């Protein structure tokens, strides 16, 4: 998988396991929040296909400039300065995990855009998953008489002399197939575009409240109606992702209203 995402995933995991009253939790939460808002969403919003950018670099005037693709030095530096597909896919996975934690639908849209980029929504129209799509790129194996196996994912698009996207399939910069691309692809597909699950628990102090009614609405339309059990629990109920739901809990004359944005594969629990 992309080399850098282990750090991001560890920081997200720390947010999940540390008590929120700890000062360290807030520091880690803030770092994750800035990364999600300013880097994942912020920079990709300024790129033509909403793909993750390769970074910011100073130009000859000392001004910072956004690099959409790696520059011509990537032809020599190969994997060290690149547009590796595992970066797009790995950061898509990070976005999904952080998006599930904070309930941010825009992060799932970011993840969708990264997968779309790899599968063909890019200026060259190349589907990098060999054997899929209508137009696959030439890869390095073909120059050495090796089979072009279905399922391979090569390194990806890099930048040319005028910062235009190019494909250097005869060398490792673009054309080298590499298992980390496939690892990241399978990881993000395991959480993307799947049904979400919603669970709930209702308590009065420390005591469970049984048999309360639960109504779940989407765009003012009732999509699910169920009851809490004798232990004051309901669910799991499977719901379409990338939607904002209104959950209404009623017991006698008492009513509680919650609004929840659910991402793919999210398992959200309410303690009401």
The largest sheet is:
4 strands, antiparallel
Low-confidence blocks of residues:
74-81
How far is the N terminus from the C terminus?
Answer: 38 Å
Shape: elongated
Helix content: 25-40%
Strand tally = 13
Secondary-structure blueprint of this entry?
Elements: H1 5-17, H2 23-44, E1 55-58, E2 64-67, H3 74-77, H4 85-102, H5 105-119, E3 158-159, E4 165-166, H6 172-175, H7 179-189, E5 196-201, E6 203-204, E7 207-208, E8 213-218, E9 221-227, E10 233-239, E11 243-251, E12 254-262, E13 267-271
Parallel strand pairs: 5-13
Antiparallel strand pairs: 1-2, 3-4, 5-10, 6-7, 8-9, 8-11, 11-12
Helix pairs in contact: 1-2, 1-4, 4-5, 4-7
Commentary on this structure:
With 272 residues, the protein is an alpha+beta fold. The protein is 32% helix and 24% strand. It has helices spanning 5-17, 23-44, 74-77, 85-102, 105-119, 172-175, 179-189, and strands at residues 55-58, 64-67, 158-159, 165-166, 196-201, 203-204, 207-208, 213-218, 221-227, 233-239, 243-251, 254-262, 267-271. It has a four-stranded antiparallel beta sheet, with no helix packed on it. Helix 1 (5-17) packs across helix 2, helix 1 packs parallel to helix 4 and helix 4 (85-102) runs antiparallel to helix 5. The protein starts with a helix and ends with a strand. Mean pLDDT is 86; it is low at 74-81.
């Amino acid at each position: 998988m992309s080399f850098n995402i282990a750090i991001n995933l560890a920081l997200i995991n720390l947010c999940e396991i540390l008590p929120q009253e700890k000062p360290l939790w807030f520091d880690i939460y803030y770092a994750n929040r800035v990364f999600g808002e300013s880097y994942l969403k912020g920079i990709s919003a300024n790129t033509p296909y909403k793909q993750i950018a390769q970074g910011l670099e100073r130009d000859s005037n000392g001004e910072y400039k956004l690099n959409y693709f790696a520059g011509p030095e990537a032809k020599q530096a190969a994997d060290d300065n690149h547009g590796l597909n595992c970066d797009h896919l790995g950061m898509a996975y990070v976005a999904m995990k952080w998006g599930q934690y904070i309930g941010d639908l825009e992060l799932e849209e970011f993840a969708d855009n990264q997968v779309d980029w790899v599968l063909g929504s890019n200026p060259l129209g190349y589907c990098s998953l060999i054997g899929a799509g209508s137009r696959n790129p030439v890869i390095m194996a073909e120059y050495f008489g090796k089979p072009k196996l279905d399922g391979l994912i090569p390194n990806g698009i890099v930048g040319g002399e005028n910062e235009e996207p190019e494909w250097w399939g005869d060398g490792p910069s673009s054309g080298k197939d590499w298992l980390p691309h496939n690892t990241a692809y399978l990881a993000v597909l395991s959480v993307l575009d799947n049904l979400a699950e919603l669970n709930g628990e209702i308590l009065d102090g420390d005591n469970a409240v049984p048999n309360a009614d639960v109504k779940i609405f989407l765009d003012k339309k009732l999509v699910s109606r169920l009851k809490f059990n004798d232990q004051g629990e309901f669910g799991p109920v499977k719901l379409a992702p990338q939607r904002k739901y209104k959950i209404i809990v009623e017991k006698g004359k008492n009513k509680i209203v919650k609004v929840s944005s659910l991402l793919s594969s999210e398992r959200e629990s309410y303690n009401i």
